[in-house]
Amino acid sequence: MARKTPDYQMRALKKYQAKFKEMRFRVLPEDQEAIIAHAKRVGDKSTSAFIIRAIKQTMERDLSDSTDK
Fold first, then answer.
1. Element (H, E) at 1
2. pTM above 0.85, yes or no
3. Under 8 Å CB-to-CB from 53, ≥6 apart: which residues?
4. What is the domain range of residue 42?
């Protein structure tokens, strides 16, 4: 028999999740495998952490490139 998640735990989860916005995107299966493998190889805590780090680094690089011109 499945155990019901306690109400206090559900409230805590909803409060935590409310701090974030969700972004979805699609990748080809082979790209997904490569992204997951790379995230593990470089030691990121999760694939999401790797993607967020990669996006932030790219944004910083793009901004510095545009100011160098």
1. none
2. no
3. 44
4. 27-69
